[in-house]
Amino acid sequence: QVQLVESGGGLVQAGGSLRLSCASSGRTFRFSNMGWFRQAPGKEREFVASINWSGSSTNYADPVKGRFTISRDNAKITMYLQMNSLKPEDTAVYYCARNLAFGSTRQVDFDSWGQGTQVTVSS
Predict the structure, then answer these.
(1) Is residue 27 pLDDT above 90, yes or no?
(2) Which of 5, 6, 78, 91 lies 20 to 30 Å from 111, alpha-carbon distance?
(3) Strands across the sheet with 18-24, in order?
(4) CA 80 to chain CA centroid, nearest Å
(5) Residue among 18, 6, 23 at smallest CA distance from 82
(6) Pairing verdict, β 46-51 and 110-111
(7) 82 phi-psi bin (left φ>0, alpha ψ -120 to 50, beta other)
């Protein structure tokens, strides 16, 4: 497993932007596919985006396509989620995790979950 710590959440107005970071302390990060999930109050945790180990392939959930961009810097052992054109429905706790099966969007195919970072989008 890898240890992951999210940061960068906060309060932003609709239409604004935030960049989340997911920092790792594990050597295996560079060889791990990674992803982001989110969980809104009263809702199940849902897939947001994933990226393969090299950064050459990405997947996005339909609600965030064209607005969010996932990326990584293996030299800094950090993954990012750039979120633009934010909407109130993007309000959630955002989690990063290691993706054990790239292409899968199921929680069971992710492990090493971070503690989450809160994103709140006001209307």
Answers:
(1) no
(2) 91
(3) 4-7, 18-24, 78-83, 68-73
(4) 7
(5) 18
(6) unpaired
(7) beta
Residue 6, pLDDT > 80, answer: yes
pLDDT at 2: 81
φ, ψ of residue 64 in degrees (nearest 5): -115, -5
DSSP string, the chain: ---EEEE--EEEETT--EEEEEEE--GGGGG-EEEEEEE-TTS--EEEEEE-TTSS-EEE-GGGTTTEEEEEETTTTEEEEEE-S--GGG-EEEEEEEESSTT---GGGEES----EEEEEE-
Could you tell me the pLDDT band of residue 9, with boundaries at 50, 70 and 90? very high
What is the spatial distance between Cα 46 and Cα 3, in angstroms, rounded to a whole number? 21
Handedness of CA 75, 79, 80, 81 (dihedral sign): positive
